[in-house]
Design a protein that fits this description.
signal, binds heme C, six-stranded antiparallel beta sheet, alpha+beta, Cytochrome P460, about 190 residues, globular
């Protein structure tokens, strides 16, 4: 296991503002104020891109067995899950873009200390935002969204849709974030 020695600026910002975030569960429910096309994600092309994105993150040491670990903190969910945040730049194909990953931990009464001691325990899933080329998704700040299982497979919704691309439940819950950047924790990627 590798630990990053310094806390990333992004992790700091997310922790600093998390108290002010709305008390909502980081779940995949379809609720949200924005109308987004629920059939517009999970195509073969979306899944292919998500697999390439996972590979790029894995090559960069962000995901996978030997992934870099950042300090876990309590997420804003009312169920109190623990999360880890990391951001940076990776290249997918010939395009380099900003990524944000969020490791989600779930379990009865889990604590930050417990996950700090053993980040492989209770690791539930990984949410990723990857900023694509300008114009990819003008209504949602050009982010590509994906949810992965710990082994890197793309997660699916209860009705079997692959959670990659313009994933409606992710977008609708992230839309109200300040800065019109769809990022809750900070506005560093606002433009
Ligand atoms: C019910 C609302 C909700 C849904 C649905 C949701 N998120 Fe989030 N997400 C949040 C909130 C609130 C935060 C910030 C607080 C935290 O980290 O817990 C966040 C944080 C994140 C972050 C860190 C960057 C940021 O915005 O602060 C990523 C990456 C992320 N989510 C990805 C996803 C992906 C991918 C999906 C869909 C699979 C998704 N989220 C679905 C509410 C949601």
């Amino acid at each position: 296991m590798r630990w990053k020695k310094t806390v990333l600026a992004g992790a700091c910002a997310a922790r600093a503002t998390s108290a002010a975030l709305p008390l909502i569960a980081h779940e995949d429910g379809m609720s949200g104020s924005v109308s987004v096309d629920a059939s517009a994600f999970g195509s073969a092309g979306d899944v292919r891109f998500a697999r390439n994105l996972w590979q790029a993150l894995s090559d960069a040491g962000i995901v996978g067995d030997d992934a870099i670990q950042t300090h876990p903190y309590a997420g804003s969910s009312k169920h109190g899950p623990v999360v880890q945040y990391i951001d940076g730049t990776v290249t997918v194909g010939d395009y380099s873009g900003t990524f944000i990953t969020k490791r989600n931990y779930r379990g009865e009464d889990i604590s930050v200390e417990e996950i700090f001691a053993d980040p492989s325990s209770h690791f539930d899933s990984l949410g990723v935002m990857f900023r694509r080329e300008e114009g990819y998704a003008p209504d949602s700040a050009d982010w590509f969204w994906a949810k992965f299982m710990p082994d890197g497979t793309v997660a699916t919704t209860p009705d079997g849709m692959s959670m990659a691309g313009q994933v409606a439940p992710c977008i609708s819950c992230h839309q109200p974030a300040d800065g019109e950047d769809f990022v809750w924790g900070h506005d560093r990627f606002s433009r």
